[in-house]
Amino acid sequence: MADLAPPVRPVPASERWLAAYVGLIVLFLALPVLIVVPLAFSSDVSLTFPPRGVSLRWFSNIWARPEFLSAFGLSAAVAVVATAISMVAGVLAAIAFVRHAFPGRDALLMLFMTPLVFPAIVLAAALALVMTPLGLLRSFWGLALAHVVLTLPYILRTAVATLTEIDRSYAEAAHTLGADRWQAFRHVTLPMLRPGLLAGATFALIISFDEFTVSMFLVGPGVMTLPLEMYNYSEFTLDPTLAAISTVLLVLTSIAILVIEKLVGLGKQFGG
Amino acid sequence: MAASSQPSSDAVGVDLRAVRKWYGPVQAVRDVSLAIRPGEIVSLLGPSGCGKTTTLRMIAGLEHPDAGEIRIGGALVNAVAPWKRNIGMVFQNYALFPHMSVAENVAFGLAMRREGRAAIDAKVAAAMAQVRLAPLADRRPSQLSGGQRQRVALARAIVTRPSVLLLDEPLAALDRKLREQMQVEIKQLQREVGITTVFVTHDQEEALTLSDRIVVMEEGRVVQTGTPSEVYERPRSRFVSDFIGFTNAVRGRVEAVEAGTATVAMGSGQTIRVPAEADIAPAQAVDLVVRPEKVEVDPPEAARPGRTLIAGTLRHSVYTGAVTYHHVDIGGGETLIAMTPNGDGHAGPPALGSPVTLGVRPENMLVFARAG
């Protein structure tokens, strides 16, 4: 992130080894993702690398299959709705956790965080069991609420961390200047929370959009998320269509991250 | 020195009656009663944990008293939210809103009062000029120096024309020189605006400089209230005399009391006669307390009339520019420090090791019963 020019000096051997080692790790992490891109433009019917020719047929295949588009739409809608609910709940919860002392506060905060550490499959089964009697199984709202459970910890954690850093004297100063609780929150606390919240929301959107295990138990005909639609497709056909979809997602995600980075400096939110 | 500020016509008083505040089992404020007059500038002075900040925050409405009454302009405000009290407050860390410009910070209170754009602009400009910050209107607080932030916080607090201005250790974060400059500025501003002001400080010098009256607090209680000179010259306890200014304290034992005068024997066996309060009784262990500048140092043959005299030996003299401190051994393991100004008319000090006589006007020697 820092664009300070390093001083010119001879690089010791140990640092060159370190650079090579780091380079290898980066390559290892990025390689599978990067292989997806050339495959998406392949003219082959099967997934072979390196591709023998270039074509855009797999991208047009996405358009030709309405189930991908509707799954994309559903995933996006679920992600936005779940993130929005998590934001409201997360900020309110963070205010309670940070600004007020009450019995069982630490235990409750831990409970909110458990979806981060519990095996997803346990949560998936549990949610399916709860949703069934509620009639929410295989429904948009069932899926969205399940995603709230999954995304809330990310929002709550960044909101708690950001709010802890905001001295309560700011809100108090607003009060002494005539702002009631809502005005102080709206004009002072919330703007100061914004960078942390945007970072949390970015995470929440990605987590929700990407979610597989829990969604698998809750989806059904007409309510299908993109990752599951892709998985279903791969069971019958393993052609570069999946690579093409992945490439589109890669580009969209990168744009989103860049925009948010420009707006608030995402790196700062994660100690970068 | 104790000249009162000119109250503006709409200045109001602040009254606290038997106010108490607990934090769990700890009683932070114990039966504090205060009557702050309209337009007056009063400081709450004491060490950390004496309840001064809690008292200020209760006047602001940021804390709620567990018992007692708080009145602003005669109206009971115990149940009134801070945003309805029409107060201005400067916080120790200033609490300037970091996402707003200086001008937006100053305009905040006016915006909350739903004033019109034009009125806000005019009042903000006037307040900024008053604290000499007009050129910095578009800066962010993070781009300002400590003294500038202080001024923004002051401008923000007074621009709404509050009934009461509350300052919580407003100068603690500034370096000494800037602090002294800001003390003068705050006092001037307070007189111009004529606003009833309460400020909290642990710095006795700041309290002496800024206040019409000082309220000295200790362990949640008010231990003395008075003008700066009253509190400095006539402290009512060892605590107050120690907390405000430097003071000498010499142990003694009361030998006799008659007609408001006590005869006290010091460790060396010397006895002196001092005016005594009613709580001083024969055989009591006491502290004799005197300010260094009230002690005169003379050769024994030049002892001045009408003084309480103590014989001693000059051990060393510390020259500090404007004044010199003379450390005088008065026997019995006790030392008294005398301060003499280094003006032209003063004779040089007696030679080190030579016998001297210390002279104190009887009314300047205070006697406090020793605890325990």
Automatic annotation (TrEMBL), chain A:
Domain ABC transmembrane type-1: from-to ranges: 72-260
TM region(s), chain numbering: 18-41, 68-95, 107-130, 136-156, 196-220, 240-260
Record membrane topology: Multi-pass membrane protein
Keyword Membrane attributed: yes
One GO CC term, this protein: plasma membrane
Family: Belongs to the binding-protein-dependent transport system permease family.
An example Gene Ontology biological process: transmembrane transport
Compartment(s) of residence: Cell inner membrane; Cell membrane
Protein name per the record: ABC transporter permease
Main localization (coarse): membrane
The UniProt record lists the keyword Membrane: yes
Pfam families according to UniProt: BPD_transp_1 (PF00528)
InterPro entries per record: MetI-like (IPR000515), MetI-like_sf (IPR035906)
PROSITE patterns per the UniProt record, alphabetical: ABC_TM1
Top-level division of the source organism's lineage: Bacteria
This protein's UniProt keywords: Cell inner membrane, Cell membrane, Membrane, Transmembrane, Transmembrane helix, Transport
From TrEMBL, chain B:
Domain of life: Bacteria
Enzyme class: translocase
Record's bilayer topology term: Peripheral membrane protein
Task of the protein: Part of the ABC transporter complex PotABCD involved in spermidine/putrescine import. Responsible for energy coupling to the transport system.
Reaction it catalyzes: ATP + H2O + polyamine-[polyamine-binding protein]Side 1 = ADP + phosphate + polyamineSide 2 + [polyamine-binding protein]Side 1
Protein family membership: Belongs to the ABC transporter superfamily. Spermidine/putrescine importer (TC 3.A.1.11.1) family.
Source organism per UniProt: Methylobacterium oryzihabitans
GO CC annotation, single: ATP-binding cassette (ABC) transporter complex
Assembly description: The complex is composed of two ATP-binding proteins (PotA), two transmembrane proteins (PotB and PotC) and a solute-binding protein (PotD).
UniProt-annotated location(s): Cell inner membrane
One GO MF term attached to the UniProt entry: ATP hydrolysis activity
Residue ranges of every copy of the ABC transporter domain listed in the record: 14-244
Name of the coding gene: potA
Name the UniProt record assigns to this protein: Spermidine/putrescine import ATP-binding protein PotA
Keywords annotated in UniProt: ATP-binding, Cell membrane, Membrane, Nucleotide-binding, Translocase, Transport
Documented EC number(s): 7.6.2.11
Cited Pfam families: ABC_tran, TOBE_2
